[in-house]
Amino acid sequence: MQFSARITDYQKNAMxxxxxxxxxxxxxxxxELNMHISEGYYGEKFVDREEAxxxxxxxxxxxxxxxxxxxxxxxxxxxxxxGVKTISDIPFLIVFKM
Length: 98
Known about the structure:
Blueprint: E1 3-10, E2 13-20, E3 27-30, E4 33-36, H1 39-42, E5 45-47, H2 49-58, E6 61-65, H3 67-75, E7 85-87, E8 90-96
Parallel strand pairs: 2-6
Antiparallel strand pairs: 1-2, 1-5, 3-4, 6-8, 7-8
């Protein structure tokens, strides 16, 4: 299982954009909702499960898309099921750690 991740600095916080690697470059649509999982936003590097865990644990703001990514985050206790939304059966979750 591979993930695609981009780390940026946002207002002095580590912001992680991470998705399931196979979703990179895809556009998902449901009704009027559209999401483009762009390489520019999510595509800095490919990481394995262990590196993804470390990135998820060490980031303050996380934008994540995909079944594997969201599942891993929930396994780690980052975010909650209640915050998970879906577009065309693809889950996404945004987390702000305090």
